[in-house]
Structures are given as structure tokens and as C-alpha cells.
Design a protein that fits this description.
It is an enzyme of class 2 (transferase). By secondary structure, the protein is α/β, with parallel strands linked by helices. Helices cover 45% and strands 17% of the residues. The protein has 12 helices and 12 strands. It binds fructose -6-phosphate.
């Protein structure tokens, strides 16, 4: 049931605040993380010396975001790998490796096979999954469910936010077990997480119709680029994937620092480029780097659409459009910056008259290799 929305995707984007809130619900007590599903695993978390995250598509981008938080808080090295690449090489894994799989459906064959492969090689496996009782969690040593609710539209939206939320909860939990974060430090991060749902609602309220209008004007666009740095990089990849998937427009995401190593050659007058701008308050250096990237592409005629924090005026002289997101600590910005990109992809597909829920050639869950 679409509940009055024109598509399941529209409904699911509107549920992004709840997807985060429901994934947090019952897992925070007195400012600390409590995940009953992980009881009894302290020894494992204390002993691991490596984490490998495996997933496909959007779930892999959630993993890339999670890497920043996991490494920052737990100080355990983290690799993120596409599930279908992972098992066709000879990965270095063993009992000290925790393999974290991420899957909305819990049925993605590539991810399932990678989990089995890791387990057979002696690694410990933990599944982050949105579907109760699915195959991947059943094949894993531990499970942290995301509580995004059923996702029907083929393109993943609310589940992506729930996956990042679950990874952050896991990272904070592991950091407390290992003692790499104090109770007070963890409490501050928990406060940031708890503030996210209201901030997403604010984006939907203040920016949604403006972004849809922008998408409508851009319905004839043939190619869109997305740039981001640090946690904004996987968000750029996600913005590009969603646009290809449902609007059939060529789109690519780049790490902003890669520009001069090649992609800047693509910039010609009128080329639309979304740029995820880090917070100027919290990461002044990164912010200034991204602003200079904006200047470089603008000088070559790019049409710049900046996703930037409220109050960031430094982007104004160089951006053709600024989509605003509320203030947050850098690690939490992905949970906000992705929302305008989901709205944009949906708006553009809608403007082209496409079926946003059932894009051509794609299935909701890919149960073949
Ligand atoms: C993108 C999308 C896909 C899935 C990928 C993994 O919008 O939906 O890229 O994210 O197929 O699916 P799950 O999470 O079910 O394993």
C-alpha cells in the first residue's frame, strides 16, 4: 500500500526519518548503546584485528560510510569490498577477522556466497540486514537488524540510512567493548545520532519541493556528475547510482580530490555537477579543499549544485544552486546529504514519466550470481 503517495519510492523517502529512529529504538539506554543481539560477543569484539565489510550496490556505499566511523571510534582497520569481488581473490582472513555483511533483502546471492566463503575460511561473520529471518542473517554468527520497515521500490533509499545507523551503533558498541572510546565520548556520538531523524524531516520539509522543481527543469540532462570528499565520497557514488538506476541518465560519482587526476576533463560549459560540501565549522580544511574544487569546475563552465550546511555562505558565490542540510558533526553528514540526492533522482525520473518503483532491467533482490 502506497499510503497515498504516488510511488513506493516517494513513500519510502518520506520514511527516512523513521528508518533511522526505528533502527535506534530500544538500543540506547542512558546515553549508551545496548544491543541485546550482541550479548556474549565481547570477547570476539575485543580480539578482532581487522574488519571487512562486504555488500553490493547501495549497501556497499553504506559500508564505505561506516568505515570512517568504525576506524575512528574502534581503531580497528576496516576494508570495504564488493561481495562479488571478495571471493574471487585470495583474501587474507582468519579467526581475528570480523566480516560484516550488509544487505537490505538478506537474499543477495553475491553477498551470501561471500559470507559463506568467509565463514569457511574461519572468519567470524556479522550480518546487518533489514529482513527478519532472511538467508544471510541465518548463515551468520551474529545479526544486527535494521528496522527500516519493508522496502518495496527497487531503488534502495530508507534502508541505506538504516544501514549507516546500524553500522554506527555497531561501531560505538565495539569501541566501548575495546575501550577505544570513553563513556562520555560515546554519549556525545549517541546524541548526534538521536538528533538525525528530526534533521532529515527538516530537509524533507524545507527542500523537497525545491529539489523536485530543480529536477523537473533538468529533465533533459544527459549526464550528471557527483563529487564528494571523505564521507561525502560514498554519498556522491550513491547519488550517481540512484540517478542511473531510475532515470537512466549517465551519472558518475568521484572523490573530489581525483578531479585533477582525470575527471576534470569531462567538465564543459553547462555540465551539471552536484558537490557534497563538508561542514565549514567542523572540518575547515576539507571544506576549503572542496570549495576550491567548486571554483575549478565553475571556471570551466560547470553548473554547480552544492549540498551544503545551513549558514555556509562560502559556497554562495560559486554555486548555481545550494541545497541546504542542517548542521551535524562530519561523520553524521552522510545521513543528511544523501536525502536531497534521493529526492533529486526520484524527481528527475518522475519528470521523465518513468516508473520510479520498477526501473527497467532491475530486480529488487538479486538472487542469482
Ligand atoms: C540500489 C540498489 C541495489 C542494492 C543491491 C544490494 O538502489 O537497490 O544496489 O543496494 O542490489 O541489495 P541488498 O541490500 O538487498 O543486498
Amino acid at each position: 500500500d502506497k499510503g497515498g503517495w504516488p510511488s513506493f519510492m516517494a513513500k519510502e523517502v518520506s520514511e527516512e526519518p523513521e528508518a533511522v529512529a526505528n533502527t535506534l529504538r530500544g538500543r540506547i539506554r542512558d546515553g549508551q548503546i545496548v544491543i541485546p543481539e550482541l550479548d556474549g560477543l565481547d570477547e570476539l569484539f575485543a580480539s578482532i584485528n581487522r574488519v571487512i565489510v562486504i555488500a553490493c550496490g547501495t549497501a556497499a556505499y553504506a559500508g564505505m560510510v561506516g568505515k570512517y566511523a568504525l576506524e575512528q571510534w574502534t581503531r580497528v582497520p576496516v576494508d570495504v569490498e564488493l561481495a562479488h569481488e571478495f571471493r574471487y581473490r585470495d583474501p587474507v582472513i582468519g579467526p581475528d577477522t570480523l566480516v560484516v555483511s550488509i544487505s537490505q533483502s538478506g537474499e543477495t546471492m553475491d553477498t551470501l556466497m561471500a559470507v559463506k566463503y568467509a565463514r569457511d575460511r574461519g572468519a567470524r561473520t556479522l550480518s546487518i540486514c533489514n529482513t527478519q529471518g532472511a538467508t544471510i542473517p541465518r548463515e551468520s554468527d551474529a545479526i544486527v537488524y535494521t528496522h527500516a520497515g519493508p522496502e518495496v521500490a527497487v531503488a534502495s533509499t530508507k534502508a541505506f540510512l538504516a544501514q549507516i545507523t546500524a553500522l554506527y551503533l555497531l561501531a560505538l558498541h565495539v569501541a566501548r567493548v575495546r575501550g577505544s572510546l570513553s563513556a562520555d565520548e560515546a554519549r556525545l556520538q549517541v546524541l548526534e545520532l538521536e538528533a538525525i531523524p528530526a534533521k532529515i524531516s527538516r530537509i524533507l520539509e524545507l527542500e523537497q519541493s525545491r529539489i523536485e522543481q530543480l529536477a523537473y527543469w533538468m529533465a533533459d540532462t544527459r549526464s550528471v556528475l557527483f563529487l564528494g570528499r571523505h564521507v561525502g565520497y560514498p554519498i556522491a557514488l550513491e547519488g550517481a547510482l540512484k540517478l542511473k538506476e531510475i532515470s537512466y541518465i549517465h551519472a558518475e560519482g568521484f572523490a573530489a580530490g581525483e578531479l585533477k587526476h582525470g575527471p576534470i576533463a569531462l567538465i564543459e560549459p553547462g555540465q551539471p555537477v552536484f558537490v557534497i560540501v563538508p561542514s565549514p565549522r567542523e572540518s575547515a580544511l576539507l571544506h576549503s579543499k572542496v570549495v576550491s574544487n567548486i571554483q575549478e569546475i565553475r571556471a570551466r563552465g560547470a553548473r554547480v549544485i552544492a549540498v551544503a550546511e545551513e549558514g555556509d555562505v562560502a559556497v554562495l558565490p560559486f554555486a548555481d544552486e545550494v541545497l541546504r542540510i542542517p548542521l551535524a558533526d562530519p561523520l553524521f553528514e552522510p545521513l543528511l546529504a544523501v536525502v536531497p540526492l534521493h529526492i533529486f533522482a526520484m524527481g528527475l525520473a518522475t519528470a521523465k514519466g518513468l516508473d520510479v518503483d520498477q526501473p527497467r532491467n532491475l530486480a529488487k533482490s538479486v538472487t542469482v550470481e
